[in-house]
Amino acid sequence: MLTMLKDIYSILWVDLCFLKRHWLSTLAISLVSPLLYLVAFGYGLGRGVDVGGVNYLAFVMPGIIALTSMSASFTGASSKLHVDRLFYKSFDECLMSPISLFSIVIGKALIGVVRGLLSSVAILIVGIILSPLLIVSPLLILVLIMSCLVFALFGVFIALVISSHQAMSTFSNLVILPMTFLSGTFFSLSQLPEAVKVVLYLLPLTHSSESLRAVALGQPFPWLSFLALLGFALFFFSACMVALKRASV
Amino acid sequence: MEEFIVTENLTKTYGTVQAVQNLNLKVHSGEIFGFLGPNGAGKTTTIRMMTTLTKPTSGRVWVGGFDVVKEADKVKNVIGVVQQHLSLDRDLTVKENIEFHGRLHHLSASERRKRINELLDYVELTDCADRMVDTLSGGMKKRAAIVSSLMHKPKVLFLDEPTVGLDAQTRRRMWDLLRRLNLDGTTIFLTTHYIEEAEALCQRVGIMHHGKLIALDNPLELRKKLGLVTVETLVNGKETRYQYFADREAAKRYVQNLGSDAKTVIIRDSNLEDFFVEQTGEKVGGN
Ligand SMILES: Nc1ncnc2c1ncn2[C@@H]1O[C@H](COP(=O)(O)OP(=O)(O)OP(=O)(O)O)[C@@H](O)[C@H]1O
Ligand SMILES: [Mg+2]
Q1: Are residues B92 and A18, on separate chains, in Cβ contact within 8 Å?
Q2: For residue B92, what are the domain limits?
């Protein structure tokens, strides 16, 4: 058990070394689009609009925090890993070491969680300043960590199966970007037809933004969404393990 | 003599490409073994199978007495690997890379500190410890990769083309380093397509061609099979003809009896390149 924790930390350690050197630029880059969304939707489009009794800025803020946690954790876990695996081959060093595949997956996901939290907490702070309605509670932090974990594991999985740099950006454009807009981040799902809703509830980000919004606005907590996040985390984790086992072909 | 690496009908196919076919090979404990062959011969694939990175399509391989597929964890403790494409993390310093390797192999903090200093000193890289890997020269990068692969005191060191892209002087220093390591008890398995490297360093060489092992012996024995002396003659001003003789006397007799259409006669020692060309009709470094 202790060895396992040490192993996980060893895997995380090397990425933390990198992050220590580049944290400011990493953070700055990850905040560009959330801040643009905030200005364009929160202030531009949504001025004077009410959603379910709250002003639009208060409504959209948790959605923006959720999408920040998604993009920062996903990129945080996948960007260096896929380059290390495909181009530098330094990921082979991990595979040739006596460290278990389990520890490798968790270690590689944790750097995504760390980077995801760094960015989403920064946006959360912006949110607290701009929108007094936002409630910060331990549950909010828990949901945020959960959301980061889901997308970090997702990022690890994609980085383990992708076969080129091109494919990585194609994937981001085809999956991550649409998810950003569709997952109830900018609008309420309650107005949508049932069929559309069903599809959108298959996206992990929908559950992140629904749960975050409920805690942040003091509404009843959607435990089902939280469970769904847990399910997604387990699913992506298993997918990572399968991908790693098949990596040595 | 104890066998450190044994392969039994080791085979790897990628789709229709037979990267390695029925390889049967034994590498002795304590030797420097050279794996020679042109691009695409299957050298890297073989190393990857020996080092747990690639699963064989069929056949088996043992390293240090352990089955590489079934006892991968045990194999990982006895091998050190310097890959063809240096697998260092370029965004870290030399020291951080080595430290990481020590962590991966469960060395304690004090052991790591001690080994890092020792090894950097051993390969004369102490001054570069805190430089980013990206800013090092090719030779320094290779040495850094070697240090990192030695952190956990492996019994066998695999090096995939360790001297490609190095200048002549740096290459010789690399050879010295490898000899020193070998004298200190490490078995060395290296691939190369430099003939002179195999001849200078290796006690035995295996020659690969299109995934097949076409020869396995010490360099001198292989040359003896062909003849130790080579005569090159330019025939009709166009084509070079190669003839092989057991010794200089025999070569000279042959040259004296040559007709007038043969010009530019060269008599020299034969080498592994000659052996390879005669066996395959191709050059090791490609045509
Ligand atoms: N992952 C892979 N997928 C498909 N084919 C592969 C893969 N790896 C190697 N091959 C093929 O296997 C053959 C042997 O390749 P290998 O890299 O082992 O050669 P090599 O002797 O190391 O060559 P070089 O001197 O160029 O490094 C080549 O034809 C190569 O295209
Ligand atoms: Mg190769």
Answers
A1: yes
A2: 3-217
Query: Tens-digit pLDDT profile for chain A (249 aa)?
Result: 889 999 999 999 999 999 999 999 999 999 999 999 999 988 888 877 888 788 899 999 999 999 999 999 999 999 999 999 998 889 999 999 999 999 999 999 999 999 999 999 999 999 999 988 899 999 999 999 999 999 999 999 999 999 998 998 899 889 999 999 999 899 888 888 999 999 999 999 999 999 999 999 999 999 999 999 999 999 999 999 999 988 765
B163 & B115 share domain: yes
Q: What does the domain layout of chain A look like in residue ranges?
A: 14-248
User: Exposed, middle or buried: residue B173 (CB in 10 Å: 0-12, 13-18, 19+)?
Assistant: middle
Mutate to test the pocket of ligand 1, among B10, B39, B45 (most ligand atoms within 8 A of CB): B45
Q: Which of B217, B238, B257 is the last residue of a domain?
A: B217
**Beta-carbon count within 10 A of B184 CB:** 9
What is the Cα–Cα distance from A170 to A63, expressed in whole angstroms?
A: 24
- The reply to whether B131 and B260 lie within a common domain is no
Same-domain pairing of B77 and B204: yes
B41 lines ligand 1 (CB under 6 A): yes
H helical segments located in chain A: 2-37, 56-83, 91-95, 101-130, 138-161, 165-171, 177-182, 194-200, 204-216, 223-247
Nearest ligand to the C-alpha of residue B37? 1
Answer yes or no: are the C-beta atoms of A134 and A123 closer than 8 Å.
no
Backbone angles phi, psi at B215, to 5 degrees: -160, 150
Q: Kindly state whether residue B276 falls inside one of the protein's structural domains.
A: no
CB distance B30 to ligand 1 below 6 Å = no
CA angle A121, A122, A123 (to 5 degrees): 90
Query: What does pTM read for this prediction?
Result: 0.90
- What is the token pair recorded at B265? 């006669």
Q: Which ligand 1 atom sits nearest the alpha carbon of residue B20?
A: 14
Pair B153, B211 in one domain = yes
Give me the interface pTM, i.e. the ipTM.
Answer: 0.90
